[in-house]
Write a structure and sequence with these properties.
elongated; 3 helices; mainly alpha; single chain
Length: about 80
């Protein structure tokens, strides 16, 4: 399993999603405390859902061209039809 690859990706994605969501809420006129709380909550939920679905797809051997997590032998057997 490419756990190390996933951890690096989520370590990069979490602060980006957090910053984006926090900035949007703050620019909409919310107070900073609420914006930070909103950003943390929804960034963790979003990344968590994506990670769980990606893990599910990996376990079920469902190919994702964007994620590119499956070994070449598994991808080629499904694409050869």
């Amino acid at each position: 399993m490419p756990i190390k690859k996933w951890l690096i990706q989520y370590t990069i994605a979490l602060p980006i999603v957090f910053s984006l969501l926090t900035a949007v809420q703050y620019l909409k006129g919310q107070i900073l405390e609420y914006s930070v709380e909103f950003g943390i909550t929804w960034a963790v939920i979003s990344i968590g859902i994506f990670a769980l679905r990606r893990f599910y797809n990996y376990r079920k051997n469902i190919n994702c061209a964007l994620c590119n997590d499956l070994p070449n032998s598994n991808r080629e057997s499904g694409d050869s039809k």
